[in-house]
Specification:
With 644 residues, the protein is α/β, with parallel strands linked by helices. It is 22% helix and 27% strand.
């Protein structure tokens, strides 16, 4: 290490999703493991430890909690400054990058919210559509920063900061951005913008990339402009000194990283393709801390990274010690929004005679989906009245958005019997998606279901009671759609037809069996109208975007609004008619046992455990309860006469 050097501490939050207070509005309870108010305490500690520090956010900060989406969101009546921006202003962020969810409520809303920010908000690869294609927001910023070296001498360095996001925003928020926004690939944009920053005088370049790390397989495709999880490929762009990542809600570096090693991903060193990097979980669960030792070349006077340390500090330490306390100053700033949210989420909507939960959403029809599917069906049926499609059967498709996965072992729906509130509506449908109706053939419906069924591992015969992992973790939880109005079984003895990106793997694979509608086999040329959401309709997840002529209805209302109105206007939920969603069941080798990872809260539902003949294998290191379930038992549940 050179005699004279500067340690610069770079702090990152990412995917906070408007979780300001350490509070679960669905359960009406404080939580220990996340919330920006707790992260703020880590920020204060980290700043106090270092002579030089900068604080950045890596996107998806404005949307994603009851506070932002229904408590103070569009149509809520909230008239104060956006609470997330107010909190970030108070924490003195130096810059932030836009994430994909910033666009969920449209450009006008986004621009109003960001107008209150006292820090630069960056986005290099989202552009105004048209001939000029000018950036929506500044692509980068150079921060003139006075830093003190190890001898106390002050140096004025220019820190270049670049913001990037997934180019898929024009697909995922098609209804808001079509004709208004165009995007470019993450890697190709960085290859242009990083040299520009250097030419403009940046001594050090830090990239705020709202993108996941992705598998090693993404490296050969680094030139693909549609690459979503591009951090590993991005790290190969010359001139990047540090990389802050996000989007996938994971932690990097992580000492106990699951799965086999990925070439180019070094959790021990904290590098991607040799570049220092960090990813700070989500909801404020971690603070990314990246310490850069900067030295100056004696011959050229240029600054470079001589050494570094990378880590993600958790709000709740894994050793069981007390979590970081909520910062009192930030808690005071957010209190009005917090109280407004509590008022909204407590509003009554309906009633359920039975508990609603999603602990078994991956192994059997989930009663948490029934009200969503019914509401979608009713809304689309009403919208089609008087149109040429009025006589077509209406189906509805939805995933379970809260079934574990990257959301963690507490990310499950669990609503007790009794009143249903507006907060429960946000729990049942936590995204501001809008309702879309599609006209599809039977063959297209089958393909939709095959894509959903590809989320499971192939289950092999001959292993007896040895549990075989059921879910392929490369798929997001929301990739598994249920379609109501149909009856079918999913044959897990077959390999998956599609990979997590929706690319064909096995053209001859057929997991969807005995598919019927109203008791009759489904023909390929039959026509249906399918109620879905804008994310799925325009190509979100491993599903293709619908052709324009297939779109028969686009609602300006969110699915959650349709759900709320449906439960208020009907008797659904008052008589226990929330039993199940869809008519599917898992099937496969009769001697096989599958391994389900679910939330420990399922132990509060012993009757359901008994129904599935589930064997409790205990809680793993990540907090998930592991259950061994005979596959034959899941197949038996399709026959009511076999149910206990």
């Amino acid at each position: 290490m050179p005699n004279r050097h500067i340690w610069l501490r770079v702090l990152e939050t990412t995917d906070v999703h408007a979780h300001l207070a350490p509070y679960d509005y669905h359960r009406d309870a404080e939580v220990p493991g996340y919330g920006l108010a707790r992260t703020a305490t880590l920020i204060a500690r980290a700043r106090a430890e270092a002579a030089n520090s900068l604080l950045f956010d890596n996107g998806d900060f404005l949307q994603g909690s009851a506070l932002s989406d229904i408590g103070t969101g569009p149509g809520s009546g909230w008239s104060g400054p956006h609470p997330v921006i107010a909190a970030m202003n108070r924490l003195r962020y130096d810059a932030a990058a836009l994430g994909n969810h910033e666009f969920n409520f449209g450009l006008d809303w986004l621009n109003r919210a960001l107008s209150e920010a006292t820090f630069p908000v960056l986005c290099a690869n989202a552009l105004h559509a048209g001939t000029t294609e000018t950036p929506l927001h500044p692509p980068s910023v150079i921060l003139p920063t006075v830093l003190r070296d190890n001898r106390g001498k002050a140096h004025r360095l220019h820190i270049g900061v670049l913001g990037l996001l997934p180019p898929q925003i024009t697909t995922w928020d098609h209804q808001h951005l079509a004709g208004r926004v165009t995007t470019r690939g993450i890697v190709e944009t960085a290859a242009t913008e990083v040299p520009r920053l250097r030419e403009a005088g940046a001594d050090i370049v830090i990239v705020l990339a709202h993108t996941g790390i992705g598998p090693a397989a993404s490296m050969p495709d680094s030139a693909d402009p549609a690459l979503e999880h591009a951090a590993l490929a991005l790290a190969t762009v010359p001139g990047i000194d540090a990389l802050l990542t996000g989007h996938s809600h994971q932690v990097f570096p992580e000492a106990t990283a699951p799965g086999p090693p990925v070439p180019g991903v070094d959790h021990h060193a904290g590098t991607l393709a040799g570049v220092p990097a960090v990813m700070a979980g989500f909801r404020g669960s971690h603070l990314g801390v990246l310490d850069l030792c900067l030295a100056q070349d004696a011959a050229t006077a240029t600054w470079f990274v001589q050494d570094f340390h990378c880590r993600a500090r958790p709000v709740a330490p894994p050793d069981g010690t007390a979590p970081a306390a909520a910062d009192p100053d930030l808690s005071m700033v957010m209190r009005p929004a917090h109280m407004a949210t509590l008022h909204v989420t407590s509003q009554p909507v309906g009633h359920t005679a039975h508990p609603i939960h999603s602990y078994f959403a991956r192994v059997r029809p989930c009663n948490a989906l029934r009200p969503v599917l019914d509401a979608k069906t009713a809304a689309l049926s009403a919208a089609l009245e008087g149109t040429e499609d009025a006589g077509l059967p209406v189906l509805a498709a939805t995933p379970c958005f809260k079934s574990g996965g990257h959301g963690g072992s507490g990310d499950f729906i669990d609503i007790p019997a009794g009143p249903l509130t507006q907060g429960h509506m946000d729990e049942l449908y936590p995204f501001p998606n809008t309702l879309i109706g599609l006209r599809l053939t039977g063959a297209q419906v089958v393909d939709w279901l095959e894509r959903a069924a590809s989320c499971f591992h192939q289950i092999l015969p001959g292993l007896g009671t040895t549990p075989q992992p059921l879910w392929n973790p490369a798929f997001a939880s929301h990739a598994f759609d249920t379609i109501s109005g149909l009856s079918y079984r999913i044959d897990l003895s077959q390999p998956p037809r599609y990979d997590p990106q929706g690319q064909l793997l096995n053209s001859g694979a057929q997991r969807i069996r005995d598919l019927s509608h109203d008791g009759e086999p489904l023909s390929d040329d039959a026509l249906f109208c399918v109620a879905t959401n804008n994310f799925r309709a325009f190509g979100g997840g491993p599903y293709p975007g619908a052709a324009p002529e297939a779109v028969v209805h686009q609602s300006a209302r969110t699915v959650r609004d349709h759900l709320t109105a449906f439960l208020r206007d009907t008797d659904t939920g008052t008589d226990g008619n929330l039993s199940a969603a869809g008519g599917w069941h898992l099937d496969g080798p009769k001697d096989a046992t599958v391994l389900l990872e679910t939330g420990p809260g399922v132990r509060n539902h012993p009757d359901d455990l008994a129904t599935l003949s589930a064997h409790d294998l205990g809680v793993d290191a990540t907090g998930f309860l592991r259950l061994a379930i005979p596959l034959a038992r899941l197949a038996d549940l399709a026959n009511p006469r076999q149910r206990p």
